[in-house]
Specification:
Order of helices and strands: HEEH
Shape: globular
Strand order of the largest sheet: 1-2
Radius of gyration: 13 Å
Helix content: 10-25%
Structural class: alpha+beta
Strand content: 5-15%
Largest sheet: 2 strands, antiparallel
Length: 92
C-alpha cells in the first residue's frame, strides 16, 4: 500500500530536500524564507519537475525542486509559466 504524500517515505523525502536543496524557488528564482509558516504564500514547498499527473516519480530526488507555495500553485500540473512576485527590492 502506498501512502502518497502523507506517509513516512514522503516525510523522509521532504526532510532530505530541506536539508540538501538550496532554498531558491526554481520557478521565479527568488530566495525562499524558510522561517515562514507553511500556509504562507511565499513559504517553501517541494515541486515535482515532471508532474505526478504526467507520471513523475514523487520520490525521485532528480524530479524534485524547491518552490514558493504561490509559484507552485500557479504552475499546477499544467506547467504554466510563473510571473515572479513583486518585491520591495531588486534581487541579484
Amino acid at each position: 500500500m502506498t501512502h502518497g504524500r502523507s506517509g513516512r517515505r514522503w516525510r523522509e523525502t521532504v526532510a532530505w530536500a530541506k536539508r540538501e536543496l538550496v532554498p531558491v524557488c526554481h520557478l521565479c528564482r527568488l530566495p525562499i524564507d524558510m522561517s515562514l509558516h507553511w500556509t504562507h504564500a511565499m513559504s517553501w514547498t517541494l515541486d515535482h519537475l515532471r508532474s505526478l499527473a504526467e507520471g513523475g516519480d514523487p520520490y525521485d530526488h532528480a524530479n524534485l525542486a524547491p518552490a514558493h507555495r504561490r509559484c507552485n500553485s500557479i504552475k499546477g500540473a499544467n506547467n504554466r509559466p510563473v510571473i515572479p512576485p513583486k518585491t520591495s527590492r531588486r534581487w541579484k
